[in-house]
Request: fold
Amino acid sequence: MNIPLPLILVNFKAYSQGTGANALKIAKGADLVFKETGVNIGVAPVATDIRMISESVDVPVFAQHVDPIEPGSHTGFLTVEAVKEAGAIGSLVNHSEHRLRLADIDVCINNLRKAGLVSVVCTNNEIVSSAAAALNPDFIAIEPPELIGTGIPVSKAKPEVVTGSLEAVHKVNRNVIVLCGAGITTGDDVYAALKLGAQGVLLASGVVKAKNPFDVLMSMAEAVIKVEE
Amino acid sequence: MNIPLPLILVNFKAYSQGTGANALKIAKGADLVFKETGVNIGVAPVATDIRMISESVDVPVFAQHVDPIEPGSHTGFLTVEAVKEAGAIGSLVNHSEHRLRLADIDVCINNLRKAGLVSVVCTNNEIVSSAAAALNPDFIAIEPPELIGTGIPVSKAKPEVVTGSLEAVHKVNRNVIVLCGAGITTGDDVYAALKLGAQGVLLASGVVKAKNPFDVLMSMAEAVIKVEE
Amino acid sequence: MNIPLPLILVNFKAYSQGTGANALKIAKGADLVFKETGVNIGVAPVATDIRMISESVDVPVFAQHVDPIEPGSHTGFLTVEAVKEAGAIGSLVNHSEHRLRLADIDVCINNLRKAGLVSVVCTNNEIVSSAAAALNPDFIAIEPPELIGTGIPVSKAKPEVVTGSLEAVHKVNRNVIVLCGAGITTGDDVYAALKLGAQGVLLASGVVKAKNPFDVLMSMAEAVIKVEE
Amino acid sequence: MNIPLPLILVNFKAYSQGTGANALKIAKGADLVFKETGVNIGVAPVATDIRMISESVDVPVFAQHVDPIEPGSHTGFLTVEAVKEAGAIGSLVNHSEHRLRLADIDVCINNLRKAGLVSVVCTNNEIVSSAAAALNPDFIAIEPPELIGTGIPVSKAKPEVVTGSLEAVHKVNRNVIVLCGAGITTGDDVYAALKLGAQGVLLASGVVKAKNPFDVLMSMAEAVIKVEE
Reply:
């Protein structure tokens, strides 16, 4: 699975503003921004919306979580197979709101890879990022939990966490793509993140709870283009 | 939400045979049996399949699980709102493969009821069934865990668990509808369960992993009709 | 196991002020108050302190938690056997900071009873209290979580929760002894709780983090005596 | 904290044979073997036994688990402070029977180090071992879960897991001491493990459930001496 970079990855969480019909509207906005700018935007809706959205847009759809299980007797849990069949091309793993056991992160990364899906492992600091890198995921998204949902962008408040994590990750594993997240709400924040060396951003409320998600995504896409110029 | 009884409720778990296109096929079979016999059959697919199935069939669709949360910052968790918007009319709660904390069962039942959805709380013995009854769910499905997936029907192997749980539940709360489950694979098993006083059955592999799920469901529906004659 | 009532039960939590040498000091203070007043005071220290304290005082020592397991391969978990051998005469179960699955509460109550130990199941509202009562524990401690640690006593802020829970519990099971907790910090709070019908209180910071735990316990014991007069 | 190597670390789990008076007897046996041979033997009893044992023997006592918390309102959880005050000089972390979330392993290692205690992080395969190494614990104990409790020694059944993990760990972090575990029951198994490059072993049932734990420990200590000759 080849994901064009930089990537703006939007986590819809369990927000009402990002569920069902609202989710579809944001995803279509992302699709439009992608088609107008060529900047890659991923969307990560709640499990029940993955199929509807993946059938309606061309941008990549991610699951927010997969469980570290094989198909079988696991009522209410989510296999990689299920999210793949619904159209997801990857999944967040170990989000700060859904932390996993170390050995289970290894299982999720492997299950995703075997199915041809990409893994985006979320981490909270440099040392945990380097541990995650040793597990060989496709992406690591470094998100200091204390900044998530604050509107204070990690790329400005803690640039040293971004650069330190980038270095720590690549010291262990050169192949991992690093996103940064937490507090990203504007094109400027995206610009700053990419300038620090991140190959994309992971964000949520900044887009999903915005008055006009399309406008926010468009300004972020323009920031990506500005970095690339 | 008024669910016609008796109810045959089929849990698709995370079986490959009950995911995606396979899930849709079983659900359509259930729909056909319902339309030919009038016997009510519920289906509980994995979260990613709820919308696709609820848009394709007239039988009631249940979630296998909802998380005890309100909409908000809960990456990878499932609100009642999300499963409702996808077309579910209720949810399993506290399945033996997905046990919940006592206080969280209370939250799930309340969240489902506030949204107009029904709760089917799974329990493992008489005393736990009576505790669950005190929480005032719509349904209780008593399933001795040691029989789940064995093909040894609870209605034959442990009829006293079914009758004892029925009594225990109704002593605490007359309004709760009692299903029984574990090991149910044939029309005979369904017949025995209803004769013991259950108002339906909860089953999984007996249908989902059957060579011909439609045939199994049809024989179960015929057993329901035979009881009612 | 016969526990003289009313009972003042002090949960030491994982407070530094209630760990190790500090724990021993508070427990000895409780012992002294008991010996001077005859009012029964239980102490619930952290697992590592149970033996030291039970060997040093005559008041009953409780575990703060037991795991729903039998002796065996369970690294880092706590059997009823282990806390009993260390001198505990019972255990808290399902504290609001350590909620358990419904079926596991049933297991813990049974494991404790089989070993001759008492169970004190914590609950958060009336309906959950009545569910807990159906599981037949020795004690239920009703503690609205929003008041825990606030110093706002449940017996004053939400007297209807105490009386409502008492009624709900006894409607399901006459044998259960009801304590009330959350925000209890003074003799007055204890007096109010007992006047509402509780047979004791469960508290923590009000004693453990007090400047002088002995004085607080003495004033609480005096309140118990005042109620009994 | 300087731990003489090689180390034979005995996990008492929640075995009846390793709880209370039984635990004390095994620990005293370990102490005697240590005093007769000079070979370092650590014991990891259940939390309630840590203080009693650490007051009775000179060999190092480990906790089986610590929770990733600071002192405070955490009923039924175990701080590093509590196990330290009880006499533990370190703790197992992330045992296969008590897996932790990635970020929590980081917290436990840091909390232990800040308190001057050593961390022994358990892992299940090479890649997870290298991730654990990035977290900079004092020890890593590699234990393929499928061999735990089988009596089939990892050092014989899967020598490549031991050597592969040693290499993987040291590639990421030269400072980490590597133990190996799973299926270790005889002096020969210990000999083989050390010959493969491990600096000690982690074992449980092979000693705790032995007819004569002292004899087993003595033969293991002799194997250590044989390797060192």
